[in-house]
Amino acid sequence: MENSVVDFPTWIFPLDTFKALPSFGSKEDNKTELIYRQSCAHMINYAGCRLKLTQLVSNTAIVFMHRFYMFQQMELFSPKDMAPVFLFLATKIEEQLRYPKQILLAFNIIKAPIETVPVKEIEENEKKLFINEKVLVQTLGFEFMINHPHIFIVKAMDVLKLQKEICQTAYFFASCSLHLTYFCVQLKSSYIAAICIKLACMWSKRDVLCFGSK
């Protein structure tokens, strides 16, 4: 889904929020929750690759995951159960739809690469997916529009006259930020893009200013 380059602050949470997330009530358990989220992001990305989806779809699914767990508990909604739901909704939003059965089979390969899933189990999992999708949609408040940092990186490439290699590295860092951090629910996408561009320039031992001055 193509959107104009606008930053949406609706889903940006104060840092204090992360000291007592719904799944883990203390600051000490914050790292534990992040590990679970990283694992969920990895499953989404792996399944997305198997389904030959674009990185955009996987990125959107991962953002849905981060937003969802700002309100819901992992004890009630296991990341293993919800990961297919996040990806299923993302395929709809980004107009690369896959059938629920296809998505569930892709995730099943992660859980049990050799085993064949019984038809009855697939049917039961499909019903569960649709039920959880309703919870996800309600939790998100029917707000599905996401402008990823990648959009701002591409725009900055033209404005700052960045080298293609710098842009590609920043693009990669932006995807990594979704997998490894809470950034997408802590910072505006434009800020994340700026951080990724700065890191990419540092990585290549170049200064951002030297590009803008050309």
UniProtKB/TrEMBL annotation:
Domain of life according to the entry: Eukaryota
Stored Pfam families: Cyclin_N (PF00134), CycT2-like_C (PF21797)
UniProt cross-references to SUPFAM superfamilies, sorted A to Z: Cyclin-like (SSF47954)
Keyword Membrane among UniProt keywords: no
UniProt domain Cyclin N-terminal: residue ranges: 32-142
UniProt KW Calcium keyword: no
InterPro entries: Cyclin-like_sf, Cyclin/Ssn8, Cyclin_N
Any one GO BP annotation for this protein: regulation of transcription by RNA polymerase II
GO molecular function terms attached to this record: cyclin-dependent protein serine/threonine kinase regulator activity
Keywords (A to Z) from UniProt: Cyclin
Protein's name according to its UniProt entry: Cyclin-T1 (Trinotate prediction)
Organism lineage: Eukaryota, Metazoa, Cnidaria, Myxozoa, Myxosporea
